[in-house]
Amino acid sequence: xxxxxxxxxxxxxxxxxxxxxxxxxxxxxxxxxxxxxxxxxxxxxxxxxxxxxxxxxxxxxxxxxxxxxxxxxxxxxxxxxxxxxxxxxxxxxxxxxxxxxxxxxxxxxxxxxxxxxxxxxxxxxxxxxxxxxxxxxxxxxxxxxxxxxxxxxxxxxxxxxxxxxxxxxxxxxxxxxxxxxxxxxxxxxxxxxxxxxxxxxxxxxxxxxxxxxxxxxxxxxxxxxxxxxxxxxxxxxxxxxxxxxxxxxxxxxxxxxxxxxxxxxxxxxxxxxxxxxxxxxxxxxxxxxxxxxxxxxxxxxxxxxxxxxxxxxxxxxxxxxxxxxxxxxxxxxxxxxxxxxxxxxxxxxxxxxxxxxxxxxxxxxxxxxxxxxxxxxxxxxxxxxxxxxxxxxxxxxxxxxxxxx
Length: 405
Hints:
- This protein is an all-alpha fold.
- 64% of the residues lie in helices and 1% in strands.
- The longest helix has 34 residues, at 330-363.
């Protein structure tokens, strides 16, 4: 029987807030600078290391999406109708809130003189997600839109990745996606004539952008059944969290000493992904000390997480433009954080209650509560290569459809 996993829903809210904090630090760094080098225990500590690495919240979104969305189709036959229904829900989930934001912001920035003229090609590109990092994409109006392009490319791939998984198993799928990504990152170092491989892969990656390996890690969590007892699960979770924080701290150090787009940062993200995946896998059922993640305020933030992600950067950008020198103190940066957080949540709530939820309910063919979690289903037996799951429901699918699927 499927059930709703509030803890994973709360994680979505935390991921959105971490990205907000990261962009706040970038635009209003005055408080963060005060606590960047705090002496303690014979060394100096950055007390805001977690918000400074808040961009990793995008990877949490990607991995949760891979896990959650694979669960919605894990036991479906994946006939053409199933695939089209899946894509329909993805369009309803992503585009209406995007269109609402464009329809709200573009007239405003034009009226205020921030945008001298409207480039309709760019508008259409943003409205259809045909923008960078796609090879021929237009420039985005909101710098967070790049991740929507990456996410939607996974939506298009997911049914076919799952079909491939049913044919060959998890490791070939993971190996294929990992090889593709590594060739994009390191292929320029290949000797001739292997350099042509990198050229071909780079051309392909222009239309399959982003960290697809992160999504696939989330998808393949369904392959691994949970066999740990409650105490072992609890111990494993805290070990996974501790290792995740150590890897995150290492990435914080790497980010400080190396150029922003250095290849090692891409490699580090690949190494971080399995620890995010392990934390998500271990939260499939309640663990002592994590119930706060499933509290009503956290679940509510999870409901609003897409809107928070879309709206936080425009709010911070307007605050920076309207009050360029009014909050350039440590105290002022905290004030602007509080105001921006309230404004962002209000706009996200407007988007969710007026557009996102009504459309999902109106056009959903199945009216049942969306769920996350449960123990992953057992993998298909290799002795039945033509068997197609579909006769029973998945324990860990994130089904409907009324919440964030």
